[in-house]
Amino acid sequence: MKLIIKNLGPIKNNNQAIDLSKDFFVFVGRNNSGKSYVAQLLWAIFNEDIIHKFARTNVEIIDNKIVENINNVAVTPELIGEILDKYSLFLQEETKRETFNIGKNSQVLNNIVIRFEYEKSELSELREKEIGGIVKIKDNEGNTLEYIEFKKDQGDLIYKFIERQLPESMKEIIPKKYLDRDLLDKKKFFLIATIIRTMLKHYHETFFLAASRIFFSTFYRYIYEVDRKRREQDIKKLVDLLENPRKKGNIQLSDLEELDFKRKYEELDFKRKYTEPMNQVFEKLFSLEENIEGHYINLVKELQQILGGEIKVIRPEGIGVAELYFKIDSVDEPLPMYLASSSVNQLTTLYLYLKYWALEKNNFLMIDEPEVNLHPENQIKLINILIQFIQNETGNKVLITTHSSMLANAINNYIYLDVLKREKGFNVKKIIEENKLKYVDSSISISQDKVGVYFFTGDKIIDYERSDDGIYFRNFREVENNLDNSLRILTDYIYLQEDEVEDE
């Protein structure tokens, strides 16, 4: 499936579609050209919670005009088109209000256009995919009960729902008419959510690391305290409004808008002054526990080599957020993060993500300018880690925005390795050893088909040129060639002047 965006920040007259099926996205271009906007938009599009929110609030899409029998739903191009069109409209409002967290009158996202396109071949892929699952609920004693089974067999486009028999005790707690209504809505919800997930190839746990992440590891505890005090103030204001309505007459909508509340997945939450992807990182830091997921420990160890040590998580006694320290390999005493280097602070949230937060499969990691504060050699090592993150049938995706020609060249090198290994049949390990090549690993490669490179001009997006063997990073090459040419001409003048002096 492909995405077309217009009127998102500086991006206005854009007709270039972004292929959402890619596994490794590279956004390049000038400063302030909209790369981070689009990265965070993709965070929203693939986000499972947002997909669920849309499906839950749009069950009316599945009505009798489209579906005759809710227990055997035939998925048609018309139904897919209806769902995707409504999802586009939903995202246009959701991203403005929640994802980017800006006012309804903001010009940054004014008249944003989000459109999805898919080809007939994708419908064939959907037909051949086997899908299934069970919806579960809990009774009043906390026991888990199977509620609905849904499945789609390989080779057809019929989604089947099978209702499980609930115990009589549940029917006594919940009246039958409400149970039947919930059952119907649950079927519609899962059908809508499953179709969106399938068109996106997977559901994904999205995670975005902003370029300003260098400050997160040092100042997140300060942000926590500021948030706590703001929440206390807002709660006090709300209590005052509820307890003393007569002082001001009826409570006005403007009174409530002054409070930083928002509705989040059916719960009342407090609104922070950040984008929702950044807010997600702070929530992870505030609730950090030393429960290691362990799915990517090999990548954590590689990252420790770049850091020259490891990040220690220490939770003080009592209530409070965890404290982070940097333990240098050669020193026993851990350092507070404000004494750690800029590169360590820059990579801390990525370290925590790989060690504590990344799921076993179907992650979508987005990093704004991963090269910031890193030595060129460490930039290459970091790309090695990110490419490994999407390998081994994990279903993972990675997106980077970058201004680094070295990262671009490193990605191309691994595309070349893939061509040599899979298409030409070369022993790439032997090539690397015989030519003493550095900064390439024979065990790592990436197919060009999995890479999507997009250049942001300032008002539109351009798909980068490709050859049979790799991707030509035109803008980087132009700058490098101009620098090399300037260096050659200027040094020629120096040598020419020296020769003239010697002749005299």
Automatic annotation (TrEMBL):
Protein origin, superkingdom: Bacteria
CDD domains in alphabetical order: ABC_ATPase (cd00267)
InterPro entries: AAA_GajA/Old/RecF-like (IPR041685), Bact_Antivir_Def_Nuclease (IPR051396), P-loop_NTPase (IPR027417)
SUPFAM superfamilies linked: P-loop containing nucleoside triphosphate hydrolases (SSF52540)
Pfam family, one: AAA_15
Domain Endonuclease GajA/Old nuclease/RecF-like AAA: 2-408
Name of this chain's protein: Endonuclease GajA/Old nuclease/RecF-like AAA domain-containing protein
Organism expressing this protein natively: Aphanizomenon flos-aquae LD13
